[in-house]
Write a structure and sequence with these properties.
By secondary structure, the protein is α+β, with helices and mostly antiparallel strands. It is 28% helix and 40% strand. It has one domain (3-98): Nuclear Transport Factor 2, Chain: A, CATH 3.10.450.630.
């Protein structure tokens, strides 16, 4: 099998998620931990949720994280973002359960 066959181009969604993660980190100065949701609306815009490390503590379970919603246009340009919630790493599962996720 040729190298070109082994390497797959990343999907548009993967490219959008990567861009949202990188640009939000650059805009806020925070470290992106993970992309936790990705959705494309009927109008072509994208909603991406990115978990950001807001405050590093020892032990790590006391780190403060923020869940950010990033909106991008159909070309992958950031339209806006907002923090949805802030929580300690040890509370992550409880915060999601409380929101019905």
């Amino acid at each position: 099998m040729a190298d070109d066959d082994r390497k797959r181009k990343s999907s548009p969604g993967a490219q959008i998620a990567k861009r949202a993660r990188e640009e939000l980190a650059a805009m806020t100065g925070l470290d992106a931990e993970a992309v936790t949701s990705l959705e494309q609306a009927e109008d072509g815009t994208w909603q991406v949720t990115v978990e950001m490390l807001e405050l590093s503590r020892i032990p790590e379970t006391d780190d403060m994280l923020g869940s950010y919603e990033v909106e991008l246009d159909e070309d992958g340009e950031i339209i806006g973002y907002r923090r949805l919630r802030r929580y300690s790493r040890s509370q992550a599962d409880q915060a999601q359960a409380a929101q019905g996720r």
